[in-house]
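[SOLVED] Need 3D model of a two-part complex

Original post:
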Amino acid sequence: MTTTRVAAPGDTADALQHGRRAPRRGVAKHGKATPWFFLAPYLLLFGTFVIAPVVLGAWISLHRWDYTLPGKPFVGLENYAALFDPGSIPFEDFWNSMRATAIFTVGSVPLLLVLPLVVALVMNTKFPGRNLFRAVYFAPYVLGVAVVAVLWRYLLDNNIGLVNYYLGRLGLPDDTAWTTSTPAAWIALVGVTVWWTLGYNAVIYLAALQDIPRELYEAARVDGANAWQQFRHVTVPGLRPVLVFITMITIIASANMFGQSYLITQGGPGRETRTAIYQIAEVGLRQYQMGSAAAMSYVLTAALMVLSVIVFWLFRERKSS
Amino acid sequence: MSADVAARPARAGASGKARGPEAGGRGGARVVVRYVLLVLLGLLFVSPLIFMIVTSFKTRGEAGGIPPSWIPDPFTTQAYESILSAPGTPVLRWFANSLVAALANAAIVVTTAALAAYALARMEFRGRGLVFGMIIATLFVPPVILIIPNYLIVGELGWLNTLAAVIVPTAASAFGVFFLRQFFVSIPDELEEAARLDGATPVQIFLRVVMPLSRPALATLALLAILTNWNDFLWPVYVLFSPELQTLPAGLSTLQSANAVRYDLLMAGAVIASVPVLLLFVFLQRFIIEGVSRSGLKG
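Solution:
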């Protein structure tokens, strides 16, 4: 086997002897073009479907761009101005959808930060069956949003759904219109999303918890720290980088919520749960108002960037006294 | 380091005896409370899935009945037969489309990301920092910004309403490059150096040294790519128009709008869409969970 040959002891010793800094005996590391040869296939995809779209999107947003019409006149910032002009046609629907996205994000992000951490803390102690529970909580995540949404639309059905049936059995109201009234629809959308994605965040937390050196806990215990103080002074600082990461990806995922409302509530009642990305896709890809839709996507992105800055500021390393 | 990859599941797998505060005395009651809570929460997570599977084997009437039944009576495969034979819902075709798309997408992701990650991890060249920085920066670009322009680009390429539209654009995986680079960086220099002294070219080193050593990481990335592509929803809904060209998730949404109250049919469709990923999960859990947990770790 080639790998065995390569790893033969003599070779290794030789390689060690002529390590990185030793002058190489005529063995060229690689030609100048070689790295680019390796990078080319990826960069072709990356350039075409990631970098070019970011630039093209900005260009589109400056035009009255209807996919089905030949002329695409340059209109400058008109598309953006319309989004901020209460008298314009896109204004109301756009800001309704931004509000829907904000409601969903505010409702789901705290739950998706705290509940998975609780699960991860429990999973981080040793007990028989731990791997089974970890798999059980993670399982819904491997299903796609289409399956999750179709399934929960059934479970949340007013009349024949399991949710109302069991609520009734518990003596609670059993006729909530989970998919066609607010705030019930919001509770349903957030609840379904938490059920679906809790395991994902929990697994990331768990990996981070396992990377916190055990000695830190032992040292804290020797100093007389109780469980809460250990959590406060060892666990939380140890988790900080991962906490920033989870907060960011959870916010981005929530701000991009689409399938749940497209399939469970169909954006209803009215347009109450039609999220920004739903509105952008409909305006751009159904009504072919691509200039306006592109402008909307940049406004949403700008809002997310502001939010990111706030998150980084909130989690910044504070000077310990 | 490859040992690093093995270490976490090994540690996680070493459940062993309960130690510390759980053991003995006062801990006994806490163990019981913990298991009761874990089991209750566990039921909350799996019972919807069980109900989905159960319902797919019910008659139309029983699927819409109250109280809900947990054992189909009579047990029937009617729902599967109807959706598999209905002309407007070519479910098997959707299944094949999803399978082709997911496998092709994963193949492109793994190949292009591995090549790029190798250059970024093991070679020194001008512009490396810039290229890597740009790739990492896009990890935080919200996907919404790409939808409209990518629709136009895919249109220009003549890929609208073809599987290429759901295979190629999402294959530019910044995560894949990042993920594999982290792995390649940890491969000992000596192995590469030795191969080089034997006269191996960079391509040979890549294929014969780095690739074989990286099988677990490559498998993990391939799995994550398959899962993501198989489950993708928004993009296929808008770029595939013909009924027979849909992927399963997009097809499922047309199934729902056409059969709003036929829950037996919808659950059968949902089961068909879930079985492959649930099987992958059951058998390859370790890789999937490993991939997710590693994605959260900083560089």
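Edit: The CA atoms of residues 15 and 92 of chain B lie 42 Å apart.
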